[in-house]
């Protein structure tokens, strides 16, 4: 039904407007008595064989929602009804910011892909915290970044502010230094500044009575030498793991007319490179740390490929938009051999 009727109708309209429309619609219908239960019964698979324990956390299944979809923690409760094992909110910044000028989100239908140059648009971390206080048992990851106006030399302060604000309300953290849509942000992936940033956060984390896992989200555009640096940085800083990968600035092999739009590319064209990065990190590190695999998952087979390459968990974003919520169920059924 989704791919035959709902998606074609939604795809007639501007993707950012559709995103807000879907948010509003799902929130409204979920308030109708019995609807949330009905949605959950259609999509959620509850089976102890799907449970995963990764970096000290227990996931009810290994299929999560990637950051960027529910930036401000507005819809995590409704999205949980669709069967996700965990929800990652953000990217959040200390202060609210509008992001880049519109139009900034583009469908590449012929490629089953999306280009975005959103630019960390969000209402600020404190606004999200107010909503997260209402959480009752949903496993939440907090993806954090820096404000656009904050120079890289002061970026650590922004990440610390977000860490401190979110600590009581999220189960793990993701340090986002790999988005291509904030000027100069990816420079923080260089070994020296990245090591300093992660050490600062991890030292602050270790001061807590109960430290929470800190993960690093990396770009798919890193070279093998840079990936080896990432392995070394994870070892040095003792963070919990890596999310591979963010969107790409590469544009090879695309067919859509709007392929030259600036921004990060996600979806099917990213599938192979994301898997390559996962496999490289897993093999070269000797499986020394957990990896969350994301990028180009549009089928159960795509998810299994990521897990076989060395991922402990997977996340969806563009595949969720193109394939619909049944994709979550399909992956979990495949994991159960159904």
UniProtKB/TrEMBL annotation:
**Cellular location(s):** Cell membrane; Membrane
Q: Which SUPFAM superfamilies match?
A: FMN-linked oxidoreductases (SSF51395)
In what residue span(s) does the Dihydroorotate dehydrogenase catalytic domain sit? 50-335
Which residues take part in binding FMN?
A: 67-71, 91, 143, 176, 217, 245, 267, 296, 317-318
Specify whether rRNA-binding is a keyword of the entry.
no
Q: Which free-text remark accompanies the cofactor? A: Binds 1 FMN per subunit.
Q: Name one GO molecular function term.
A: dihydroorotate dehydrogenase (quinone) activity
The name under which this protein is listed is Dihydroorotate dehydrogenase (quinone)
Q: Gene name?
A: pyrD
């Amino acid at each position: 039904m989704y791919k035959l009727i709902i998606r074609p109708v939604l795809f007639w309209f501007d993707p950012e407007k559709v995103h807000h429309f879907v948010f509003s619609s799902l929130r409204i219908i979920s308030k109708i008595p019995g609807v949330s239960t009905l949605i959950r019964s259609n999509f959620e698979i509850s089976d102890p064989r799907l449970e995963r324990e990764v970096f000290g956390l227990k996931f009810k299944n290994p299929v999560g929602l990637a950051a960027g979809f529910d930036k401000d923690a507005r819809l995590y409760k409704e999205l949980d009804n669709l069967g996700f094992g965990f929800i990652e909110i953000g990217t959040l910044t200390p202060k609210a910011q509008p992001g880049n000028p519109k139009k900034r989100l583009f469908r590449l239908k012929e490629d089953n892909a999306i280009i975005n140059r959103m630019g960390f648009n969000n209402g600020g971390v404190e606004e999200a915290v107010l909503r997260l206080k209402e959480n009752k048992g949903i496993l939440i990851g907090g993806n954090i970044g820096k404000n656009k106006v904050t120079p890289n030399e002061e970026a650590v302060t922004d990440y610390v502010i977000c860490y401190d604000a979110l600590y009581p309300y999220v189960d793990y953290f993701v340090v986002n230094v790999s988005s291509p849509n904030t000027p100069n942000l990816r420079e923080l992936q260089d070994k020296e500044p990245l090591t300093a940033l992660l050490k600062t956060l991890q030292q602050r984390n270790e001061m807590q009575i109960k430290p929470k896992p800190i993960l690093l989200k990396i770009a798919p555009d890193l070279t093998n030498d840079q990936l080896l640096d990432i392995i070394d940085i994870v070892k040095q800083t003792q963070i919990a793991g890596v999310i591979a990968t963010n969107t790409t600035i590469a544009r090879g092999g695309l067919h859509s007319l709007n392929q030259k739009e600036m921004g990060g590319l996600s979806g099917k064209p990213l599938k192979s490179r994301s898997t390559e990065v996962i496999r490289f990190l897993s093999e070269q590190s000797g499986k020394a740390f957990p990896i969350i695999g994301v990028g180009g998952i549009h089928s159960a087979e795509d998810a299994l490929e990521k897990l076989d390459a060395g991922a402990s968990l997977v996340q969806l974003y563009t595949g969720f938009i193109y394939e619909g919520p049944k994709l979550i169920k399909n992956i979990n059924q495949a994991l159960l051999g159904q």
